[in-house]
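Notes, p. 3: input format for complexes.
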Amino acid sequence: MADFAPDSITFASGHYIGGTVVAEGERIAVARPSDLVDYAELPVASVEVVDRAVTNATQAVAESGWATRPPRDRARAMRRWADLIEERAEELGRLEALGSTRPIAQAVTGDVASVAEGIRFFSEWADKLGGDVAATRSDQLGMIVSEPYGVVGAITPWNFPLSMASWKVGPALAAGNAIVLKPSELTPFSTVRLAELAVAAGIPAGIFNVVQGTGAVTGDALSRHASIAKLSFTGSTRTGVAVMKAAAESGIKPVTLELGGKSPQLVFADADLEKAASCIAGSLLANAGQACVAGSRLIVQRPVMAELVDRLKAKLSTVTPGPTWKAATGFAPIISEIQARRIDRILAESHRQGAECLLGGGRIEGHNGAFYQPTLLAGVTAETAAVREEVFGPVLTIQAFDGEAEGFALADHPEYGLAAGVYTADLGRALRAMRALKAGTVWINRYSRTLDFILPTGGYKSSGIGKDLGRQAVEANLRHKTVLIDIGG
Ligand code: NAD
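Output follows (489 residues plus nicotinamide-adenine-dinucleotide):
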């Protein structure tokens, strides 16, 4: 992987409607997280532009045959798309790295590679979920027929722009829908390139549309558009509430919500501490903690606390921050100065509440972008700001426990339930933890996703409703029609 010059990258700045880039709307500046330089202007899609995108998508569903063609044809087009994504991995990766927090080496070999494989995974469902024949009286035939919704909407966050888009588009298209997707206004451009490649691969124009803009204008218009039959949102819990409200106010539609997290890492004294430390540090360093599933609360059995903290300090002390366009960069910038100030605020409040910094605690100086030191915070309680709030930075709070029940109780967060990690050598305890933890994903003696897209992801409590990935994500893009026929005899 080579370095690249940020100014050498060209891209289309606009919406992508019916297979054409449309640069219509009031313009806002877009900054690169690596150096906070404004590098492009983005048009904001008004209510009218969003309406045009939805109308276009509705027409494409009616005219292109995307929903009615043999499902395996849909699967083939999606596989071609995945191949094209792989062929253009370097180009897509550069565009992703340019405007987001994803370092180029990780963007190409991690994000883009996973997007291509994810699209392949979803393509394979195109002919697998047709419906069921029900057990009825023998003189009747009962069927449950699966049908696509028509046009679905999606809104994505900035932290993994291409991956988050693919998690929405993949299942929507495999199920036979068209989609209108709004990426984050902080990271808007790679999603349009993804959509252009879909059309280049033979997916009809108008099936994958992108509208650009702010949440307040474009996101709200999409959420409340009456012809969007189903909505899928990934972002903060606060915005999720607004999206659900707007969706309800504009005609009832199902809403999938993938929201924030404050996930615990529960380490028992019998755990392989070196492995636990690697997993916990890996989770904290990944995208500099700007991941929904970041395992940001360490809950450790008292006898091994000191040893685990020492191991964590060793692993977190050396990071390789730098611009995302440098191949040697391994540690991501914070997305914006506003977000970095938010981390400052949570840490200052936590210190006032008695938290003690064992490592880090401030900015990494000497960079144009905002970079944050991996930070370990002890002396915290359930009330401490850094334990309560989703920090979205490389900050790990540390709490000790004695008995198993106390550990389970501390792991439970009053608001969030996205993921949890458990480290123990005792199988029975691992399974008791799996049952006790109120989280949508429980990782045992590991802490990260794999390329097993069959495993769905989603939250309990205010971390969300419904699932991305897995069969469940495709099923969520289908609705079911009940048919009962008198067949006589
Ligand atoms: P955000 O909620 O600020 O924004 C997410 C998206 O919603 C953006 O596209 C934004 O423009 C849009 N938006 C904002 N206000 C809106 C409104 N009123 N109506 C409609 N759309 C609106 O989140 P973010 O800062 O971009 O992303 C970080 C958050 O995303 C974190 O909370 C993180 O945990 C969460 N996240 C969750 C998952 C998951 O799978 N659960 C994955 C990634 C990120």
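The longest helix spans residues 104-123.
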